[in-house]
Amino acid sequence: MRVTVTRDGDTAAMLDALDALDGAAAGSPYLQAKGKAIIESSYAPQFSVDGARKDTGLLGAFDAASEAGHGYDDMAAVYFGFHRGWFGFVTARSIT
């Protein structure tokens, strides 16, 4: 079954898409929860956009640590990404 969801706010189509994906590999509980939140225009933070932005911003530190030869070490070796001068947009304010 192929379900197409358009940007016009077709709630029935969006619900059909969630139903079609429920139980499938791509139909994770997270997808179900966030899909329903989008349909209901419910954006109360479970994990804020700024929190996700900070976490994804840290990927640069992991890249730098990997490039420094720590790709197979424990993730604590991300220290070397910061040690090499990678700071991205992460500030003391954004991680407190």
Low-confidence sequence ranges: 89-96
Taking the alpha carbons of the first and last residues, their distance comes to 46 Å
Cα radius of gyration in angstroms: 19 Å
pLDDT averaged residue by residue: 76
**What is the H-and-E element order?**
HHHHH
Overall morphology = elongated
- Largest pleated sheet: none
* Total E-strand runs: 0
How many H/I helical runs?
Answer: 5
Class of secondary structure makeup: mainly alpha
How many domain units?
2
**Percent helix:** 40-55%
Percentage beta strand: under 5%
InterPro entries: 6-PGluconate_DH-like_C_sf (IPR008927), 6PGD_dom2 (IPR013328)
Write the layout of secondary structure elements.
Layout: H1 11-21, H2 29-39, H3 49-57, H4 59-70, H5 79-83
Helix pairs in contact: 1-2
Task: Outline the structure in words.
- It is built from five helices and no strands.
- The protein is elongated and about 50 Å long.
- It has helices spanning 11-21, 29-39, 49-57, 59-70, 79-83.
- It starts with 10 loop residues before the first helix and ends in a 13-residue tail after the last helix.
- With 96 residues, the chain is an all-alpha fold.
- Mean pLDDT is 76; it is low at 89-96.
- α1 (11-21) packs antiparallel against α2.
- It folds into two domains: 1-46, no CATH class; 49-83, no CATH class.
Put the structure in a nutshell.
With 96 residues, the protein is mostly helical. Helix content is 50%, strand content 0%.
